[in-house]
Amino acid sequence: MRPHAKDISEEEFKAFQRGSQRVFRKVFDTYQQTLLRYAYSVCGKEDIASDAVQESFVQLYQSRSKVDGPSGIYPLLFVVTKRYLLRVFRRSIVEAKFKNELSIDWDERSTATIDELEGNDLRSLLLELVEQLPAKQKEIFQLNKFAGYSYEEISEQMGTSKNTVKNQLISASRKIRLSLHKLYAFIFLIYFFR
Prior knowledge:
The chain is mainly alpha-helical. It folds into 2 domains: about 1-105, RNA polymerase sigma factor, region 2, helix turn helix motif (Rna Polymerase Sigma Factor, Chain: A), CATH 1.10.1740.10; about 110-194, Arc Repressor Mutant, subunit A (Orthogonal Bundle), CATH 1.10.10. It has helices at about 10-15, 20-45, 45-60, 75-105, 110-130, 135-145, 150-160, 160-190. Helix 2 packs parallel to helix 4 and helix 3 (about 45-60) packs across helix 4.
């Protein structure tokens, strides 16, 4: 990929990878407004655009040692911003569907349809939450919960101990459960206090 016109020098990039706040601030000042304009043009809401850009810089800082070079900074920021906006969009669709379902009077015959819709939404939400897990936890969770592998089978396949697999699975399950509790508590509040 050709270097972007706003990229930092190689020396500044090395300092950036070592955690230089001065260079990180320069990167922030260089790209923040461009990303904000893009995010706002996609979602039309300042708070969501600002959150998307903030998330992209947090992830950039956390993965700064993995960035290939100065020209890799902006593409990483752009991709993270775009993915954040996509998650927000998907979540808003699920919430809109849920609100719509709650506002319609269903009779007894439609309970099977409601159960199917809720199951599909919950599956989609679960898959999205699994995608947000760290790579190792995600792989272990998918192998155990979706593919049905035992702790021993996963530990053999991944070359780790059975206890590591168990701990990673517990941690992943806890994160997903906490996210689901927060989301459903939010939906409950919206439904009962609107």
